[in-house]
Design goal:
Elements: H1 2-40, H2 45-68, H3 76-79, H4 84-120, H5 133-137, H6 139-160
Helix pairs in contact: 1-2, 1-6, 2-6, 4-6
């Protein structure tokens, strides 16, 4: 199980190292859109939609990696002040009762929409936009799968690794 958890970490890391280049592409495209619009008075809906697509890909495909490196937003007011054993219990509860069920529900309820979009090769959001809404909708199940796998990897570690003792002074730096 721990080898599988490690493989999930590697997968999400590889996805993140690929997706990070989309940030540069998105910034460059957005810069070009602004320059072309204000310098030459030309506008491209397809270019604007490409920024939207890249933005969606960055956040949806990067979510698993963000969980892997423990950078998801959480309410730290209580979490930071409890013992390692209680943090572990909170994490296990969060994975089992919130994250995993939410991702399974989203995967289930979005699947028909994604399949329908692929069946008709759903076209642009706006007239003159990209002919690839079906690709953007495909990000939803990928998001669910990557986050589910990472959640299961975390859960595996939480359930199999021993609780580490508290650091001196009882807090994190």
């Amino acid at each position: 199980m721990r080898k599988l958890a490690g493989a999930v970490d590697v997968l999400n890391h590889a996805v993140a190292m690929t997706v990070r280049w989309l940030v540069l592409a998105m910034a460059l495209i957005q810069f070009a859109i602004v320059v072309i619009r204000y310098a030459f008075g030309v506008n491209s809906i397809a270019a604007q939609e490409s920024v939207l697509y890249l933005h969606a890909a960055i956040f949806m495909l990067g979510a698993g990696y963000t969980l892997a490196v423990d950078k998801h937003v959480r309410v730290d007011v209580f979490y930071a002040k409890v013992s390692a054993a209680k943090r572990r219990a909170i994490d296990i509860t969060g994975h089992c009762l919130l994250l995993i069920p939410a991702m399974l529900a989203l995967l289930y309820w979005s699947w028909a929409s994604v399949m329908n979009s692929w069946t008709i090769l759903e076209g642009p959001i706006s007239v003159g936009g990209l002919q690839a809404v079906f690709l953007m909708k495909s990000l939803t199940p990928l998001f669910c799968v990557l986050l589910l796998l990472q959640s299961l990897a975390h859960l595996t570690r939480l359930l199999t690794e021993p609780v580490h003792p508290e650091p001196p002074l009882g807090g994190r730096l």
